[in-house]
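JOB MANIFEST
job_type = single_chain_structure
chain_count = 1
residues = 76
[input]
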Amino acid sequence: MSIVAIQCPKTGQQISTGIETDAASFKAAPFANRTVECWACGGRHSWSRRWATLVEVDDPAVKRAGVPIPGSSVHA
């Protein structure tokens, strides 16, 4: 599984959108006109597929993106 993440336009930090999916579902989903609360700047960001990337759950970037890792109580 992977986490859908975007880059905070204010801080440049990669942040989680809160969506966990696989590559095939990511490609098929519309992901348009979405918003996310940003832990990095405290703001709310609009995003679409164009701005999103997939990050593997075991990638160190997941921890940095503030993503709760399943089975763990560790957050960024």
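[summary]
Residues 68-76 have pLDDT under 50 and may be disordered.
Helices lie at 23-28, 60-64.
exit_status = 0
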